[in-house]
Amino acid sequence: MVAVGKKPSSVPPFAFADDGTTQLKQENKMSRFEDLKKPFPAEKIHWRVGATNKEKTKGIALAYLDARDVMERLDEVVGPENWQAEYPFVGCCRIGIRCKEMRADGVSFTEQWVWKSNGAGETDVEGEKGQYSDAFKRAAVLWGIGRYLYDLPNTWVPIKPQGRSYVLATTPPLPTWAVPSPYTPKEEGEMYKQSVKDELQDVFK
């Protein structure tokens, strides 16, 4: 079973230098590995109830992503033709990204697929379908996608019954580091340069 993007893309594969560090052939662009790690918009974050109190009036809010949004991130960052997902056996997913490895001549490249895998058990809600989705998302975390959600603080919020379980009555606000920057990389660079300039002016006043 293979999941790949559909839209054509001009995004080149990753490039690896001899020392194993990533480099991007396009100048003045952020590392694509860093792009994979970027926070998602708040409206893309879903929430479920974790641990609850004895009275079942409050619970810990746990954030997660939809598998389709993870696919969109891979399409946007590496290009739909440069990644694929395979399920070698039930409960396991591995995501491969097509990369380029520099040869010893320092000029030419050879292509290769780099894989990262993870697994998950069946879910209470969707059973085997949820298992495949969770395995896919966990494999994506190994590439950095949505990994920041694990660093969110445990926040207790009101909960309410829904069917046989509970859902959040309200969602907690995300910290500033867990939301996308409203500025482009170029704008962020200019702001950083200006802040350094301002600090130097203060020092030499």
Summarize the structure.
The protein has 205 residues and is α+β, with helices and mostly antiparallel strands. Helices cover 26% and strands 28% of the residues.
How would you sum up this structure, described in words?
With 205 residues, the chain is of the alpha+beta class. It contains 4 helices and 10 strands, in the order βββαββαβββαββα. Strands 1, 2, 3, 6, 7 and 8 form a 6-stranded mixed beta sheet that branches. It has a 4-stranded antiparallel beta sheet with strand order 4-5-9-10, with no helix packed on it. Strand 6 and strand 7 form a beta hairpin. The longest helix is centred in the last third of the chain and has 19 residues. It is flat. The N terminus is likely disordered.
Identify the notable features of this structure and list them briefly.
single chain; 205 residues; alpha+beta; six-stranded mixed beta sheet; 10 strands; flat
Report the structural category. Answer: alpha+beta
Q: Give the number of DSSP strands.
A: 10
- End-to-end Cα distance, whole Å, is 65 Å
Average pLDDT: 81
How much of the residues is beta strand, in percent? 25-35%
What shape does the CA trace take?
Answer: flat
Biggest sheet, in brief?
A: 6 strands, mixed
The value of Rg in angstroms is 21 Å
Q: What is the tally of helical segments?
A: 4
Which spans have pLDDT < 50 for at least 5 consecutive residues?
1-8, 16-30
Helix fraction, binned, reads 25-40%
What is the helix/strand order? Answer: EEEHEEHEEEHEEH
